[in-house]
Amino acid sequence: MQFLLFIFFLSPDSLLPLPGNFLNFEIAEGFIYLYESNNKKIIRMDNQNNPSAFSIDMINERINVFKLTPFFIYLGSPEGIFRLSINSGMIESIYRGYINSFTITDAEELIIADKQKKEILFLDYQNKIKWRLTGYNALDIGYYGGRIYLLTRKDIQVIDEYGNIIEKIKIPNKVEKVNVDEYIYLFKPNERVIYKWDGFWKEIFLQHPIADFKISKNNILVLNQYGDTIYFYDKSDF
What's the domain of life for this entry (predicted)? Predict the structure, then answer.
């Protein structure tokens, strides 16, 4: 394993104060979507930083992860996965089970890490199970360019959309989350470090602990540990 040839200490270019305290967030089409657990809401902020809210009162458990498509917000919790219509606000249950994480493919099909069953489930466009991989306790799932990135306690397993293993990459430390674009990024909430893989592991230190972070075309967006500020970093600095 090629490991930690470089160590960086980065400072943000700008910051965005948020109207509350949030656990995680997503970005899409110029909007920032944030999960507020205390009030059971998804807050959407436009490019003028004006907030609007989606109520998710019907979901009893905390949202561990959520993902976006053009028309829906998919919400993952220990109860399962729910789908919220951005247009109508209607919520429906599409999968029952204790999940660690899930991702959505370019064809808008779900891939789920079921914690209780220790399975990776591939759903079709009707949310029916197409096939499954057994014996996996994946902590998180990333998706990019038709490949799925399964984060386990020891490595990242890169697989295709049919479940075939393409590559295994040993991870440099204990982490819990993975983000992917052309590169692989790992982190553990409430720590200051992001690990980046581009053939070698690079260790990147920030000035503040991380609750969540996302990748846009030109920036890395980082939610701080209090969930009240997003920091913007130039992507080229990473």
Answer: Bacteria
- The model's confidence at residue 58, banded by pLDDT at 50, 70 and 90, is confident
**Are 199 and 209 spatial neighbours (Cβ–Cβ below 8 Å)?**
no
Give the residue among 104, 82, 108 at the shortest CA–CA distance from 95: 82
Question: For residue 13, what are its two tokens?
Answer: 């270019």
Across 23-50, average pLDDT: 91
Radius of gyration for the chain, computed over Cα atoms and rounded to the nearest angstrom:
17
Q: Which two tokens stand for residue 212?
A: 């969540």
CA 15 from chain center: how many Å? 20
pTM, whole model, 2 decimals? 0.92
Assess whether pLDDT exceeds 80 at residue 5: no
CA distances from 235 to 59, 165, 196, 221 (A): 35, 29, 12, 9
Strand duo 201-205 + 6-9: pairing: parallel
| Alpha carbon distance 38, 50 (integer Å) | 20
Number of Cβ within 10 Å of residue 55's Cβ equals 13
Domains belonging to the chain, first-starting first, are: 6-237 (2.130.10.10)
Q: What is the pLDDT of residue 43?
A: 95
